[in-house]
UniProtKB/TrEMBL annotation:
Family (UniProt): Belongs to the WrbA family.
Name this polypeptide is given: Uncharacterized protein
InterPro entries (alphabetical): Flavoprotein-like_sf
GO cellular component entries: membrane
Family annotation (SUPFAM superfamilies): Flavoproteins (SSF52218)
Molecular function in Gene Ontology: NAD(P)H dehydrogenase (quinone) activity
Amino acid sequence: MLFPELQITQTKSPTSRARGKLLPDLTALLHVTSLQAAAKTTCDVAMIYHSMYGHVVKLASSLQAGMTSVSGMKASDFKVQETLNSDLLKALHAPPRPNLPIATPDVLKDAGGMLLGISTRFGTLPAQVKGRFDACGDL
């Protein structure tokens, strides 16, 4: 087991078999989260993500569906402020962004939990995400 205290096992997904990688099974993690949520009346999770081409948005949608199926769980979507101008986004063939509220330091402070969806750019955080977290120094 990868994390015995959370009872998370590794399984191979159809897409990971081709790459030979193992992906964690998040079912146990969501179960632990639901137990923690049961102790409260509700648990509001802020799902904050940045997605240039929409892949992270698809992952976030699946996670949100799983979380909201648990009694007492509420998931709210937020996006990271885009810093690239629209001409550059067109040149990069980026699809239109979902119309979501922008994550602010107050969102982080008020959330009962956080799920971050962050793509990488050359092995590091995109500048948009780094800028958002750098602005949270007062928290």
